[in-house]
Amino acid sequence: MSLSLLEVNQLSIHFGGVKAVQNVSFCIEAGIVYAVIGPNGAGKTTLFNLITGIYTPTSGEILLDGEPISGRTPNELAERGVARTFQNLQICMNMSAIENVMVGAHLRLDRNPLKAALRFPALRRRDAELRLEAAELMRFVGLEPYISAHADSMPYGALKRLEIARALALKPRLLFLDEPAAGLNPKETIEVDQLIRKIADSGITVVLVEHDMKMVMNLSDRILVLDYGKKLTEGTGEEVRRNPDVIAAYLGSHA
Prior knowledge:
Layout: E1 6-15, E2 18-28, E3 33-37, H1 44-51, E4 59-64, E5 67-68, H2 74-79, E6 82-84, H3 97-106, H4 113-118, H5 120-140, H6 156-168, E7 174-178, H7 186-201, E8 205-209, H8 213-219, E9 222-227, E10 230-235, H9 237-241, H10 244-251
Parallel strand pairs: 3-8, 3-9, 6-7, 7-8
Antiparallel strand pairs: 1-2, 1-4, 4-5, 9-10
């Protein structure tokens, strides 16, 4: 049996008396699109924060390629090929668009300031290479018209894709997207839908939290449903769509 890329076992976190995530377990195989859905307050973003090193679990374990990563910092996880975006934009508005993408690439490099000072010519060459790499990523996510733009001049939909480009600059194996279509109009949503499929087709495993059920059903190979911090069910889109517990959680038990 092949080893799962990501394995989560009995994961929990408590904030005082609030049990935000309770004994959640699931596995994610490499090369798929895996969605996490549930009503507001179900614990979806908290689960992302646990896996990506923002929070430390109260109990349970997280394995990446079979190795424990619980309690690892986001920087340590980035070095292992884990990247993410956030619900709210994390764009540096005082920088250019391409510089925002380059920030993601710089996280892969040696950040020792002394070494950087001693290798200044090489560092300049590397920055030039990273700029070319960032421009290519902007083309990949459909932002070629904004390669020379300043971030604060870009529309919201373009900024959402810029954040994805920055995450891709880390060269991740596992990419977490937290509500990538939030706040987008129908045309922009279709563009992000197509981009996520393009990313998955390139070999990157994608895990997303998303409220747009049309996008979730269109993209996802597997879906995890949370409700009040607990795992409600897991399966294919068709299995989840027909599950009476899922219908009750979203529409009320009378449904």
